[in-house]
Amino acid sequence: MALKAVSIWGCYKPPPQLGVGVSNSHSTLIGNLRYDYDKCRKWECCCLGVLAQRATTAVEDEGPSVPPLVDSSGAADGVHQNESKGFHKDLNLLPKPLTAIDISSYPRDGSKVRVAYQGLPGAYSEDAALKAYPKCETVPCDNFEAAFKAVELWLVNKTVLPIENSVGGSVHRNYDLLLRHRLHIVGEVQLRVNHCLLGLPGVRKEELRAVVSHPQAFAQCETTLSDLGAVKIAARDTAAAAQTVASNCARDTGAIASSRAAEVYGLDILAERIQDDDENITRFLVLAREPIIPGTDRPHKSRRRSRCTIQSLGSFCYEGY
Ligand SMILES: O=C(O)C(=O)C[C@]1(C(=O)O)C=C[C@@H](O)C=C1
């Protein structure tokens, strides 16, 4: 799903998100962000259809991987059986059932890797997905649960999720989700998060009475927030906060989000790098259905060879592996 960084005034239509709405205490403001669940379901079904079709095509293109069995009459086994039943089809030409390898994490037909993330276009999680896979197709999801499900249902290849921030600490909910789902950690992305204060075009920061953002972003920008003295309103992600300000035309409300979110939702940047700690890093995990199996095709060298190997194996033993 390609993103266009265009101004949203009057015409921005957010792309469909996977998943269902989450209740929020600021329902009047945030409620506008919810998408029609039926539309999302239709979109999911459509994606499933496309994926299934793509996978089937890939298998058909490959042709038979095993040579047909030939009986004493010289006829291929499948043809022979079919002819005896009155059919004239070679069974080997029929599409084979899909296997996990057919729909691999790197599609064979050259199509893009699809990476799900929680939030709207312009969220930091999308930045993390694009940092990990610069050419990927990012798929916005309504919540983390939906991002996990998108991988499990083969709608996407991978998902990225924030796991901890250098200032705000651990994202506990995501540890729970990691335990509840059977996805594998296949990578890690460290993203430098530079928060901006955004507002409607022409608004000055002194005019702001409220600020919308993700609770993690609030935790990372406490000094700026106390200087502003504005009321904090929680949003599901920082891009949703930017979208809320833009779509409500709220001149007295700002958002804490990225400079990319400002571009996507047509907002002005009122202040940059407003986080308390300049080294504000969020660590994201990349999850997939299949684990990465370390290769056994190459020998691993060590200078002090056997002694070193025994020592390193010993530390695994010591740690109880
Ligand atoms: O709100 C976003 O944009 C997110 O991607 C979520 C999130 C988080 O949950 O930690 C990611 C990075 C920042 O630390 C702030 C928020």
From TrEMBL:
Q: Might you report a single GO cellular component term?
A: chloroplast stroma
Q: What are the UniProt keywords, alphabetically?
A: Amino-acid biosynthesis, Aromatic amino acid biosynthesis, Chloroplast, Lyase, Phenylalanine biosynthesis, Plastid, Transit peptide
Provide the GO MF annotations for this entry: arogenate dehydratase activity; prephenate dehydratase activity
Sequence ranges assigned to domain Prephenate dehydratase in this UniProt record: 114-289
Question: What is the annotated localization of this protein?
Answer: Plastid, Chloroplast stroma
Q: Which domain of life is it from?
A: Eukaryota
The record's InterPro entries line, in alphabetical order, gives: Preph_deHydtase, Preph_deHydtase_CS
Might you name a Gene Ontology BP term for this protein? L-phenylalanine biosynthetic process
EC number, as in UniProt = 4.2.1.91
Specify the enzyme's EC class, one word. Answer: lyase
For the region Disordered, what residue ranges are annotated?
Answer: 61-81
Q: Which pathway, metabolic or otherwise, does it act in?
A: Amino-acid biosynthesis; L-phenylalanine biosynthesis; L-phenylalanine from L-arogenate: step 1/1
| Keyword Transit peptide in annotation | yes
Per its UniProt record, what PANTHER family does this chain match?
AROGENATE DEHYDRATASE_PREPHENATE DEHYDRATASE 1, CHLOROPLASTIC (PTHR21022:SF20), PREPHENATE DEHYDRATASE P PROTEIN (PTHR21022)
| UniProt protein name | arogenate dehydratase
Its source organism is Glycine soja (Wild soybean)
